[in-house]
Amino acid sequence: MNEREQRGLVIAALCKLNHNENGWQVPSQSGDMIYTVNLQMQTCTCPDHQTRACKCKHIYAADFTLNRETDREGNVIETKTMTFTETKKTYKQNWPVYNEAQQNEKKRFLALLYDLTRNVPNLPRKQVSGHAPTPMADMIFASAFKVYSTISTRRFACDLEDVFDKGYLSMNMNSISISAYLECPAMTPILHGLVEQASLPLRGVETTFIPDSSGFSYSRHVRWYDEKYGVTRSGHDWVKAHCMAGRKTHIITAVEIHDRDAADSPMFKPLMEKTAKNFTIKEVPADKAYLSHANLEQVDKLGGVAYIPPVQVEQRPG
Q1: Strand 231-246 vs strand 76-78: parallel, antiparallel, or unpaired?
Q2: What is the percent of the chain with per-residue pLDDT over 90, rounded to a whole number?
């Protein structure tokens, strides 16, 4: 089933569809509109069908409703037969292009990172005398490059010398100092702004956004109770990065970093607010983020459609 067919099934299951001389009257999921569907002509008055001339979710909803009947006891019987088959898609890899992209990734990353950070302003100095502080642009460039490299700070010293020789840094620095940069709280709002700035070239492409979260461990350890085995265990502590990503390009439009126990639902509002400043939001698929009615209302106020993707159930023989 495609996405429109899935949504049509939801409308047919949750909404009451009426039929008159004009055709089927199908309610909108995102507002108070009622669209007219002519099943014989396969037409609908909704913007989706009028713009794309495709079989929209309202036509699918009318199809499902037409093929549904009620017995004498009032039980709903679905007479439409739906076959679920698992198909495996295979994609041919364009190896020459793939190899070229991998071989030039680091070079392009450094050029893009420099363009993104070179105009970062410095923080005001608390005292005029003494050693001049490292420019904030250099701190952010070196920190981002260090994380990208995935190597230790000591081994990263050679990489710092290379980018300094290429003009990406205004001064050569000790690689050990990057550990202090990564703990500088003044960098946090600047990094948030750079995430938004990096997404702006794609604001004419992305209209569907997906909230998600992931954990990042660090060197400190924490103890917790393992409910599965009934024992106390220890391991690296972690933080959760909550982000909003575009569906087509996977570009990150907003980020919130919180402790390991931060839930997804409360993070939805700030992520949506930051994304809505720069993008037109038409659709927001999510799961746990919609545990709050306020999150559903927020998407509706922004003119988007909030929906929960259906769970894919594995079909087993017998």
Answers
A1: unpaired
A2: 57
- b/e code 196-230 from CB counts within 10 Å (16+ = b): bebbeebeeebebbbbebeeeeeeeeeeeeeeeee
Q: pLDDT tier at 313 (50, 70, 90 boundaries)?
A: very low
Instruction: Report whether pLDDT(132) > 70.
Output: yes
> What is the torsional sign of CA 164, 165, 168, 171?
positive
Three-state secondary structure of the chain:
CCHHHHHHHHHHHHCCCEEECCEEEEECCCCCCEEEEECCCCEECCHHHHHHCCCCHHHHHHHHHHCEEECCCCCEEECCCCCCCCCCCCCCCCHHHHHHHHHHHHHHHHHHHHHHHCCCCCCCCCCCCCCCCCCHHHHHHHHHHHHHHCCCCCCCHHHHHHHHHCCCCCCCCCHHHHHHHCCCCCHHHHHHHHHHHHHHHHCCCCCEEEEEEEEEEEEEEEEEEECCCCEEEEEEEEEEEEEEEECCCCCEEEEEEEECCCCHHHHHHHHHHHHHHHCCCCEEECCHHHHCHHHHHHHHHCCCEEECCCCCCCCCCC
pTM of the complete model beyond 0.70 = no
Q: What type of residue is 74? A: G
Measuring CA to CA, which residue among 197, 184, 109 is closest to residue 140? 184
208, amino acid identity: T
pLDDT over threshold 60, residue 100? yes
**Cα–Cα distance between 263 and 154 in angstroms, integer?**
36
pLDDT digits (tens, 9 = 90+) for 4-50: 888 888 888 888 899 999 999 999 887 788 999 999 999 999 999 99
Mean of the pLDDT values across residues 49-60?
Answer: 92
Distances in Å between the Cα of 286 and the Cα atoms of 244, 252, 274 are: 10, 16, 17
Judging by DSSP bridges, how do beta strands 23-27 and 34-38 pair with one another? antiparallel
pLDDT at 85: 62
